[in-house]
Design brief:
Elements (H helix, E strand, L loop, with lengths): L1 H20 L12 H10 L7 H18 L6 H12 L9 H22 L14 E4 L13 E4 L3 H8 L3 H16 L7 E8 L5 E6 L5 E6 L3 E8 L1 E9 L2 E9 L3 E5 L6
Parallel strand pairs: 3-9
Antiparallel strand pairs: 1-2, 3-6, 4-5, 4-7, 7-8
Helix pairs in contact: 2-3, 3-4, 5-7
């Protein structure tokens, strides 16, 4: 009877795990894919009995991959990070707070470098108002191709002006951002906002708060930028490669927003 109960419990965990994530892991024990097993360990119920088999298996697969990898293989670092995490936790799943902490440390390292060198870590090349972003036409196919759509960079002059900081301004801004990154006081009146621009276009994010509280943040294509703002409610707006972006956000703690995606393959 006890064995029967354990059997049904195992089946229940399997079904709940798959249904809760909308993924089919019914054949996961046969998988030889590091990524598939890694995804299962992130999604599965903590008490799923398959974990005891798959976790040590995927760790051995990762070790074998690292051992046989070619010099310069970009996946090796990822496998090493995953192995380190699996040695001390059930899976490579990272919580929202942990992800924020990782981003925070990267930002601290970035701005500390800038403070030491006295200049931005990103080499910025000004754009001109005549520059255009060529967007692929919608619903194109090999048989019915349509001309690409050219989108003028109407904000180029304003973007260049916002990016053109003198050394003193840049140092003061960097110090302010670093102070905000190191400040863990929940009663602080200000906090940092970081915008990551994954698109092929330079963008300006406008943050409008209550009354006259307004901020503008230029973010280069495939880059990021940060700003320290007063805590409160804001309307975020911008133009991302010709597309309008708008989002209402309440800022009470450090915030990261990722926008756009590259059209390059």
């Amino acid at each position: 009877m006890k064995k029967l109960l354990l059997f049904f419990s195992a089946i229940l965990f399997i079904n709940l795990s798959a249904q809760s994530k909308g993924k089919d892991y019914s054949e996961i024990l046969k998988s030889k894919s590091i990524y598939e097993i890694n995804a299962f360990l992130r999604d599965a119920h903590p008490d799923d009995p398959r974990r005891s088999v798959l976790k040590p298996r995927v760790m051995e697969m990762m070790k074998e991959y690292i051992k046989n990898a070619q010099p310069g293989d970009q996946k090796v670092r990822q496998m090493q990070d995953w192995l380190a995490m699996l040695k001390r936790r059930p899976s490579t799943k990272i919580s929202f707070d942990e992800m924020n902490a990782i981003i925070k440390q990267k930002q601290i390292a970035k701005y500390q470098r800038e403070l030491q060198t006295g200049k931005s870590a990103v080499v910025y090349i000004p754009s001109t108002p005549q520059n255009v972003y060529v967007a692929p036409a919608a619903n194109t196919s090999a048989t019915t191709s349509k001309p690409a759509v050219a989108i003028p960079d109407a904000e180029a002059s304003e973007f260049n002006m916002l990016m053109a900081e003198n050394p003193v301004e840049h140092k003061n801004k960097t110090v302010k951002i670093l102070n905000s990154l190191f400040d863990n006081d929940p009663n602080a009146k200000e906090c940092i906002v970081m915008i990551e621009n994954k698109s092929d276009c330079n963008i300006i994010i406008r943050m409008e708060g209550i009354g006259i509280t307004k901020y503008r943040l230029p973010v280069p294509a495939h880059g990021d930028n940060s700003i320290v703002v007063q805590k409160g409610d804001y309307l975020f707006t911008g133009i991302v490669c010709g597309a309008q972006y708008a989002s209402q956000k309440t800022i009470q703690k450090p915030l990261m927003v990722a926008l756009g995606s590259s059209a390059k393959k």
